[in-house]
Design brief:
It is built from 13 helices and twelve strands. The protein has 380 residues and is an alpha/beta fold. The longest helix is centred in the last third of the chain and has 25 residues. It is globular, with a radius of gyration of 21 Å.
Length: 380
């Protein structure tokens, strides 16, 4: 028998057989390389249009001197700063490689094969993927008016349910659930369920009915884990860092399954500076204000070309249902130098998600829409 010819049928877990890998948004470099386009506007991945905060940039310039050393596996300084800022104990904070990394850790810590996970759909693809990877059972609940239907989700909770995800605001629709709706949900959710509220876009939102899940649910004793991220408004998506606020029991479980050094020292220091640095709050407010203007401008551009947006959207992106397979439209826009996100992996194969960008990026989009229409054919 030749070396390597033996097949071990049990090598790969059966739970992975039906899973397609997460389809990340195309990078600017990839589009430039493949299509030979010099000017590309990436409006696909809900990144902020700006880089790290100025104070974080200064800190990052010093990090190269210490990159021969492993990072603090416990991210003590960052977690201590977050604890002080949020009014919780340091052992109630877990760090990870973005909110996405923490979803993976929670799944690994909590789910056994056959356990059930409830979430709205279409929604963030990682809820589905992380559930399937562990051999657990996803129970998806259709959105109502493009928002999470919390009432219907409660009806899907059973004795095998371990986790309920509430994506607020929902990615990819950009819509939110109100304080009143979540209050009613928590009055009825069974005690054996961990509710995970994903607030990755919290800092963009100024709606008075949008609840702070840490202050209003975690601190009030609800069985909840709250996810937040430095990838969006803080401009640190490339460094991969986020955090969860949850009970000490849940955070200790996350620590057991998290790789020892999954969040690098540069990410920790940049996040810490973004929280505590001089003028950090001013920069946060500036970006929030810019985003409101940018989202409004993006909506006007899309609607001017007959692309109706779903709303009210409260984050930094807009959702458009084309009513037909969105991939041809996505591919035609690529040829014009615009990257948007087709939403097949999110459960919305007829829709696209478009991130608010700079005025220059919006100008590229406007020019592309003069050429391309949703059917994928040229206008001329």
């Amino acid at each position: 028998m030749k070396i390597g010819s033996r097949v071990n049928r049990g090598l790969v877990r059966p739970a992975l057989a039906s899973i397609a890998p997460y389809e990340a948004g195309k990078s600017i470099e990839e589009v430039e390389r493949e299509l030979g386009i010099a000017r590309v506007a990436k409006l696909a991945s809900n990144e902020g249009p700006f880089g790290p905060f100025p104070i974080a940039r200064q800190v990052l310039e010093t990090q190269s001197y210490d990159l021969n050393r492993y990072p603090d596996a416990n991210a003590y300084r960052l977690r201590a700063a977050l604890a002080g800022r949020l009014g919780v104990e340091i052992d109630q904070i877990a760090h990870g490689a973005g909110a996405d990394g923490l979803i993976s850790h929670l799944s690994l810590a909590l789910l056994d094969p056959g356990d059930e996970v409830v979430f709205g759909w279409p929604s963030f693809a990682s809820y589905m993927l992380s559930t399937l990877k562990l051999g657990a059972v996803p129970k998806t609940v259709p959105l109502r008016d493009h928002r999470y239907d919390l009432e219907a989700m409660l009806a899907q909770i059973g004795p095998k349910t371990k986790i309920v995800y509430v994506c607020n605001p929902n990615n990819p629709t950009g819509t939110m659930n109100s304080r009143e709706e979540l209050d009613a949900y928590f009055e009825r959710v069974p005690e054996h369920v961990l509710t995970v509220i994903d607030q990755a876009y919290l800092e963009y939102i100024e709606e008075p009915e949008y609840p702070d899940a840490i202050a209003e649910y975690f601190k009030q004793g609800k069985r909840v884990a709250v996810l937040r991220s430095f990838s969006k408004i803080y401009g640190l998506a490339g460094l991969r860092i986020g955090y969860a606020v949850a009970s000490k029991e849940i955070c200790a479980a996350i620590a057991k399954v998290r790789p020892a050094f999954d969040v690098g020292s540069a990410a920790q220091e940049a996040a810490l500076a973004s929280l505590t640095g001089e003028d950090a709050e001013v920069e946060l407010a500036r970006r929030r204000s810019y985003n409101a203007v940018s989202v409004a401008e993006l909506g006007r551009i899309l609607r001017a070309f007959g692309l109706e947006t779903i709303g009210p959207a409260v984050a930094n992106f807009l959702f458009v249902d084309l009513g037909t397979d969105s991939r041809p439209f996505f591919e035609q826009l690529l040829k014009e130098g615009v990257i948007v996100r087709p939403l097949h992996n999110f459960g919305a194969p007829t829709a696209i998600r478009v991130t608010a960008g700079t005025s220059e990026e919006h100008a590229v989009l406007r020019q592309a829409l003069k050429v391309v229409r949703p059917s994928g054919h040229n206008r001329g």
